[in-house]
Specification:
The chain has about 270 residues and is α+β, with helices and mostly antiparallel strands. The protein has 5 helices and 9 strands, in the order αβββββββββαααα. The strands form 2 sheets. Strands 2, 4, 5, 6, 8 and 9 form a 6-stranded mixed sheet that branches. A 3-stranded antiparallel sheet has the order 1-3-7, with no helix packed on it.
Length: about 270
């Protein structure tokens, strides 16, 4: 009986021992199986800004920011840069917030082993002027089809407004538009309210001048008509020969004058007879 009990205790102790799948956790609280991580790709990516200043990278609102992505393939096999994108994050706050995702550009450019390739990448912003963190990354695919994310840039940048100039065409057009709107408003107010309150007075000198001009034009027309008629009559008289026409036809007879004294009594007599 005692031997059977000993053998049963030994079996129970063996069942309590950890197996190969149940390894104890490391002293620092990390797991040995997760410490290895995914396989790394021997590829380096970096970003440069040709138009940047000495004091740092500035993102001008409304203008495209030009950048160049340099990818170095240290692998023996070729890789393919599928696309490049980025985002803008706040500096303050825990955790930081994503303000805007930038434009994603597809490339699908193959880079041979031991070679380097430069890819242009541009983006624009319309944000409040402040300091933000710019994050640019590239998606790379190896010869086996596995996709990797390479962080190319993660630094602080400054968002600024564009410099204004008096000779800027947009500013000049804005000023002209505002001036036209202001002038149209003033003209509308003047013709709608001011002219009704203060009617225009007639100028007597102008009326006299216009009347004189009208009379002169009428006189000119009448005199011209007379001249024309005389000219026509004179020219018309010259067309025929007057030698064969009798004199009593050429000379008009004088109109006889009737005495007024003889006519009035006849009228009176008629009235008397009636």
């Amino acid at each position: 009986m005692r031997e059977q009990l000993r053998t049963q205790r030994e079996v129970n102790d063996q069942g309590r021992r950890p197996t190969n799948l149940e390894q104890p956790a490391a002293a620092d609280g990390t797991d040995d199986s997760s410490s290895k991580g995914p396989p790394q790709l021997a590829v380096q990516a970096s970003v440069s800004f040709p138009q940047s200043e000495i004091f740092g990278v500035k993102l001008v609102n409304g203008h495209a920011t030009q950048s160049v992505l340099s990818v170095v393939n240290n692998e023996e096999d070729p890789i393919t840069v599928a696309m490049v994108g980025g985002s803008l994050w706040t500096i303050s706050g825990n955790p930081p917030q994503n303000l805007r995702n930038l434009t994603t550009v597809k490339y699908n450019v193959e880079i041979a082993g031991g070679k380097m390739e430069s890819l242009p990448y541009s983006f624009s912003t319309e944000l409040q002027p402040e300091e933000l963190r710019l994050n640019l990354a590239a998606l790379v695919q190896d010869h086996n089809g596995a996709v990797y994310t390479l962080q190319a840039y993660n630094e602080t940048v400054t968002v600024v407004e564009p410099e204004t100039s008096i000779f800027d065409p947009q500013i000049i057009f804005l000023y002209l538009f505002l001036l036209a709107v202001f002038g149209g408003t003033i003209y509308f107010i003047y013709t709608t309210w001011i002219t009704t309150l203060f009617p225009a007075k007639r100028n007597p000198s102008r009326t006299k001048k216009t009347s004189k001009k009208g009379l002169e034009s009428i006189d000119g027309i009448s005199s011209g008509g007379e001249a024309q008629t005389t000219a026509v009559s004179s020219t018309g008289a010259a067309k025929y020969d007057e030698s064969w026409i009798p004199e009593h036809h050429i000379k008009r007879p004088d109109a006889r004058r009737v005495k007024s004294g003889s006519a009035t009594p006849k009228v009176k007599s008629k009235k008397a007879d009636s």
